Amino acid sequence: MQRCCGKITSHLWLWSTLLFLTLCFAPVMLHPQCLDFKPPFRPQKELEFCIMYKEFGCCDYQKDQELMSKYYQIMDNFDYSGYTSCAGFIFDLLCQECSPYAAHLFDAEDPSTPVRTIPGLCSEYCFQFWNKCSFTIPFLSGDPYIANFRENQTSLCHYLEIQDKDYCYPYLLNNQQLTQNLGGIQVNSDGCLQLCLEEVANGLQNPLAMVHANDGTHRFFVAEQVGLVWTYLPDRSKLERPFLNITQAVLTSSWEGDERGFLGLAFHPKYKYNGKLYVYYSVEVGFDERIRISEFHVSANDMNEVDHTSERVILEIDEPASNHNGGQLLFADDGYLYIFTGDGGMAGDPFGKYGNAQNKSALLGKVLRIDVDDNQRGPLYRIPPDNPFIHEQGARPEVYAYGVRNMWRCSVDRGDPWTKNGKGRIFCGDVGQNKFEEIDIIEKGRNYGWRAKEGFSCYDKKLCANSSLDDVLPVYAYPHRMGKSVTGGYVYRGCEYPNLNGIYIFGDFMSGRLMSLQEDKTTGNWKYNEICMGMGLTCAFPGLINNYHQYIISFAEDESGELYFMSTAIPSATSPSGVVYKVIDPSRRAPPRQCHYNPLPVRVKSNLIKFVPQETLVGIDLPNENFEPQSTESYQWHQELSDHRGEIGAGVITPVPATGTSKPTKNSRRKGRHRKNKSKLERAPHIQTGAVRLVGDSRSDRGRVEIYINGEWGTVCDDLWTLVNARVVCRQLGFQHALKAAKNSEFGEGKDLRILLDDVKCVGTESSLLDCRHAGVGTHNCAHYEDAGVICGNSSYVAEV
Fold first, then answer.
1. Measured between alpha carbons, how far is 604 from 304 in angstroms, rounded to an integer?
2. Domain regions of the chain by residue span
3. Pairwise CA distance, residues 196 & 499, whole Å
4. Where is the SRCR domain (predicted)?
5. Is it true that domain 691-793 has CATH number 3.40.50.1220?
6. Please, what's the b/e burial string for 586-615 (b: 16 or more CB within 10 A of its CB; e: otherwise)?
7. pLDDT digits 0-9 by tens, 637-687
8. How many angstroms separate the CA atoms of 327 and 784, rounded?
């Protein structure tokens, strides 16, 4: 390297100052991308040639060595004068393949376009390069167009020029907005982490568990509430025959929000050798409803199918009500099976003097721990000798922890990949009653407070004041204005996205909110950040999306530790609108080949169903070959009104479509647009009751829903707000599809307006929200932080599979 350093290092000092932090937050405007259409990374082995990108970029050590070799091959063609004049230019141009913005410099952000052979240059730099080193061009590029332009400085630099001056080389080096905090998780102005998703599976009926067998095959198994479990291969193809089918035994219904059904699935830690798995589901025995934990064995003849005759009922517990059924099964690091039960249902845990959760002689409202090893003969399970209440009179020996209301989704922390810090911790989301949702870390013998407490707050004041309560507080609790049904998640410990290491990611079933917690190692406190889907170019990578169905049912890890979640558009056990999403950090990935694994072969006896993604990126206009332009003769009066949003209120406004035999109003006829000397506002039709508009966003396809009723504009509350409701609004606005039913005032609060509609329930065929069921105009029990919104679209994407 020393023989070329004189001219090469003119600007290395700038990049060498970009010290990379494991986790930092960067502005949302960035879109770093490599030539393989993936995010940049931090090289495992320090670069020796393109050292300005040694902290963060698109080259690993192997690629760096290739570029160094190419550099010397080119430079060997020149004499000393050529060497001293052009070494720096050749170095600069070659090393831009390592730039975090390589895809943009080489015009490779769209995989369908040809990649440049020379990076996009700023015009002044290009003129200097041409004046000193135009003779080097044939050694850098075989592009015939460049060869034709080589003798003409203006034509060549025009061809090499990049339109976006902020991204051209070398201006981007001095653009602080592009270079500061490169590689950190991107955040918006509200501190919301910007992540992306990858669709993994779809068409599922309330998918509420996704687990792996830890057998080296890297298959994943997705359970549906109706009692079906499906096998997916590493290439995401689905086996046509289910892995498990106990639909005849499972108690559930098609009612939206029914909490009964197939609720949990766990593979034995030694499944690879003993073939045992455990399921948690609702059953009806006579007139009684129960939860049942059963053991199954995989078939001896097919590794992708359970032997349905092998079921052995390990435990059954009577359920006094149809809700609060719990449902989590997991094996912790100690090898024991943990069972998470609900408190029995109804409201306020009304069973007995103190409720089920505080009663250690009841199995409801508990975390149970049992030993299911070596149970071929003798008892179906044994009590671990260190269970905390094994010697307490009247207490059930299975109880490991108590005082829980309805823990929905728990997970075991794999621990930091290098230090193993946090390994073995059990995180749970416990669904609240009226005010708070909470996240707990489960510890042996601890009381988690319910029904005395809900979150950090007292619920039963008499119990709460009891000095013997000795309860452990949650690590985090949030109020119902943020969400009303927590879905516990996972601490990310995967390999592919290093920035996420140590972040606990969870969600809320009702609000659709994705959230995160990160522990401060010095104080032990947990810092909260909401997770938002990356907008603009943040998720503009092949195969990534930035939207999901609103009802977040469950989270999952695959065998390699990558993170997923499942959600649905309609919370019914029979609605095939469930989707599995993989969580993606678009700001930084692991170095190439670091996360490689070789799945063990899977012998398949069933037909395979190839995975076909259904969802698309929103917020970016992508090419659509089937797009048909609208007739220019059509009078787009609502667009004209949006141009005057400052005069009549921001947003897109549309009239209620005519239904039945009603006639269009006079002002809505097309002939009105030909009248001269009339302003656009004078030509706009009279606003009818039931008209809607979208406000709170500069884009016309999304915003807070406001409705015009009896001469005033007002907002709509998000209680019962679904994609079906959103579809009515979007169709009214002239869009083909509803992409998202937004909640929790995602597009701001309409504080200056009254809330006009609440508890809106549409079937999808209505002409306006007024035609849907609702609590009555002006009748509501909500606040503006629950203002509803929508994202609409005209792409071929359909929200429900």
1. 7
2. 51-180, 193-592, 691-793
3. 14
4. 692-793
5. no
6. bbbbbbbeeeeeeeeeeebeeeeeebeebb
7. 333 333 333 333 334 444 333 333 333 333 333 333 333 333 333 333 468
8. 34
